[in-house]
Specification:
Layout lengths: L13 H10 L3 E4 L7 E5 L5 E6 L5 H12 L16
Antiparallel strand pairs: 1-2, 2-3
């Protein structure tokens, strides 16, 4: 059984960010500079809730809190059986 996806408390990789963004309707990568980017949480109306650069100290810790409180999970579909989304 696969482990649920989680961001580390500090910096995070593009692969980790892509995996988390794929699990939530309102979490995305923005300001992509190839070597660095922001992971962003938005409200249902598109307004910004929280964002942080992937290289920032403690970035994952803040993002995890806001994703837990405001993240909108992608609908469970039959083809997502066995998904590792939290």
């Amino acid at each position: 059984m696969a482990q649920p996806l989680r961001l580390p408390d500090g910096t995070f990789t593009r692969a980790e960010a892509n995996a988390i963004a794929a699990c939530y309707q309102n979490v995305a990568i923005e300001d992509d500079q190839q070597t660095h980017f922001r992971l962003v949480v938005r409200d249902t109306d598109g307004s910004l809730i929280w964002r942080d650069w992937n290289f920032a100290a403690g970035a994952g810790q803040g993002l995890k809190r806001f994703i837990a409180d405001y993240g909108i999970p992608v609908s469970e579909a039959p083809d997502n059986a066995g998904s590792t989304c939290p």
